[in-house]
Amino acid sequence: KTHLDRNGITVHWWSSAEGLVVFDNCQQPPRVAERAHNKICIFFGKKWAGVTYGEGGIGSPHGVSVSRGDSDEDRYALVSFVHCKLDEDDVTFIKKSEQDFDALEAKCKL
Which of 3, 11, 56, 66 meets the CB 3.0–4.6 Å disulfide criterion with 80? Predict the structure, then answer.
């Protein structure tokens, strides 16, 4: 399911199989080189929207779409979640933006 993380920044270091889809500002899923050992993928969550008051967008919708045919192998991913401290104004912004978060997630179909 397409979703926004609740953290500030997500760092996707590596995964054992392709499948990560991170949508850009135009709701297009760019290619992520998630199996490469020399690249990382960084994207933003709801707390990022809160601390920036949406100036840089309200987050990066993403999800995993695994289509490996008949493979029943598990997919493993190495991911870090960076949480930022929020003040009351940040929390208020996030709460007021819940409908916007939901609408953005709904626009970006896997």
Answer: 11
